[in-house]
């Protein structure tokens, strides 16, 4: 293929093959069981085949399908362990890899965006992409002044593909719900449809990256590459050397996991505080640990603009919940629109529902694990438990939707890292109006 597949029929057929293929493999599995194979062996084979097709189809399509796959990948930690194996490696591939577009297509985009003599801007240009993801791919090069740079090139037809894919991929969302019982991918998909179009505007992305780079210039803990040049479909940034977060997840030492997990958590609050922007694409492919030990951040196509910083109500309500002030929590949530005026809710039942979410801030340090996230999803999604009905009474105001998605995705990544984080210390330093609970009280 010379560029991103764009024909609606072709893309729809590929996306439709995911649930159809799953149904076919299920039927195949039943046949295997009739033939004498155990249920466990058949289930493992079906899951492995489904995972393989998921990566192949979403990876080839790129665009919105690829973006949805990346969104799914951060929730891998919520899968029950007996299911996680077949999907873990496949979904995490979607975090920082996809089949590349040919060099000739890359050259055509560069000529269109930088002019027919685009090579004069570079001392060297590597035609083999260093990374390929949902909207564009990255090539390593050396700028004419000698600097090592990353050249991000947008796929031709990415815009049409994004809109088409996100209209079609709801079929895949139903599959995801099956992997993570109770997880409603609908709101996540709807929010992606609203926001992901911004990623096509490389001018907006370059502006956000420049603001981050300026705000974090000289920071001893974080590294943000500066923008060298930007057009509608090309961004040239300083190259950021480092170990991808996915590699730390796969094989990092506990010391490395702890250090990265802390910086990852801090970034969620430091962005709004320093820049008025929340980095809104939490998957591990966007982060690095640099050779000098800093936490490197890439890809600013998805951001939440928070000019006044993180809403102070979050810190205030979290403090009230940790202090056990149930009535005040209900009142505050009602004021913010999380509980509609017509809904009656038991304050103590609400705190019981929220209790697992508060666990990371109840101790001096907290280790995020896959087991904890699985328990979390089980706690809120089990209809046999009384707190299940409490969750149904809560509403998510539109202004909090992207914050919710980013934080939920970040929890998934932290649990993949299995790092220990001083959550209370981070909240006290960077979350507006947060007050740690008094150990002497209650």
Commentary on this structure:
By secondary structure, the protein is of the alpha+beta class. It has helices at about 10-35, 40-60, 65-75, 80-95, 105-115, 160-170, 170-180, 185-195, 200-215, 245-250, 255-275, 310-320, 325-335, 345-360, 370-380, 385-390, 400-415, 425-430; strands spanning about 120-125, 130, 135-145, 150-155, 220-225, 225-230, 235-240, 245, 275-280, 285-290, 295, 305, 365, 420. Among the domains are: about 10-95 and about 170-180, no CATH class; about 245-440, no CATH class. The chain is built from 18 helices and 14 strands. The chain is elongated.
> Structural class, please?
alpha+beta
- What fraction, in percent, of the residue positions are helical? 40-55%
Shape: elongated
Number of strands: 14
Estimate the mean pLDDT confidence. 79
Kindly report how far apart the N and C termini lie: 65 Å
Spans where pLDDT lies below 50 across 5 or more residues: 1-9, 11-44, 61-65, 175-183
Report the total helices.
18
Biggest β-sheet, characterized?
A: 6 strands, antiparallel
Strand content: 5-15%
Give the radius of gyration. Answer: 23 Å
Please describe the structure with a list of short key phrases separated by commas or semicolons:
single chain; 442 residues; alpha+beta; six-stranded antiparallel beta sheet; four-stranded mixed beta sheet; 11% strand; elongated
């Amino acid at each position: 293929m010379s560029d991103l597949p764009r024909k609606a029929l072709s893309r729809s057929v590929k996306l439709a093959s995911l649930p159809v293929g799953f149904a076919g493999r299920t039927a195949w599995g039943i046949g295997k069981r009739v033939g004498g194979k155990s249920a466990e062996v058949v289930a493992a084979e079906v899951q492995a085949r489904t995972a393989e097709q998921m990566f192949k189809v979403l990876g080839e399509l790129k665009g919105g399908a690829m973006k949805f796959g990346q969104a799914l990948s951060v929730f891998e930690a919520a899968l029950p362990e007996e299911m996680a194996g077949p999907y873990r490696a496949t979904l995490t591939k979607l975090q920082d890899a996809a089949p590349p577009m040919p060099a000739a297509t890359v050259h055509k985009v560069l000529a269109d965006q930088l002019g027919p003599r685009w090579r004069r801007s570079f001392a060297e240009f590597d035609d083999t992409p260093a990374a390929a993801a949902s909207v564009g791919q990255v090539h390593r090069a050396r700028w004419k002044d000698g600097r090592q740079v990353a050249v991000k090139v947008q796929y031709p037809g990415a815009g049409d593909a994004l809109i088409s894919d996100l209209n079609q991929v709801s079929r895949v969302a139903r599959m995801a719900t099956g992997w993570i019982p109770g997880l409603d991918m609908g709101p996540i998909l709807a929010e992606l449809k609203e926001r992901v179009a911004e990623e096509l505007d490389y001018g907006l992305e370059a502006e956000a990256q420049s603001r981050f780079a300026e705000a974090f210039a000289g920071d001893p803990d974080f590294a943000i590459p500066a923008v060298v040049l930007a057009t509608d479909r090309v961004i040239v940034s300083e190259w950021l050397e480092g170990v991808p977060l996915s590699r730390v997840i796969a094989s990092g030492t506990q010391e490395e996991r702890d250090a990265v997990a802390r910086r990852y958590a801090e970034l969620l609050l430091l962005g709004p505080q320093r820049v008025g922007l929340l980095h809104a694409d939490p998957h591990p492919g966007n982060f690095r640990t640099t050779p000098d030990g800093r936490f490197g951040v890439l890809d600013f196509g998805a951001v939440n603009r928070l000019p006044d910083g993180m809403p102070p109500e979050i810190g205030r309500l979290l403090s009230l919940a940790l202090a056990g002030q149930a009535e005040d929590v209900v009142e505050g949530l009602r004021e913010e629109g999380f509980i509609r005026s017509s809904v009656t809710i038991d304050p103590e039942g609400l705190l019981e529902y929220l209790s697992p979410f508060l666990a990371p801030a109840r101790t001096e340090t907290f280790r995020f694990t896959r087991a904890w996230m699985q328990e979390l999803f089980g706690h809120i999604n089990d209809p046999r438990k009384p707190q299940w009905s409490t969750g149904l009474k809560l509403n998510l105001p539109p202004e909090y939707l992207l914050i919710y998605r980013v934080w939920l995705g970040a929890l998934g990544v932290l649990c993949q890292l299995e790092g220990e984080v001083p959550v209370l210390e981070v909240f006290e330093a960077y979350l507006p109006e947060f007050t740690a609970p008094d150990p002497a009280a209650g």
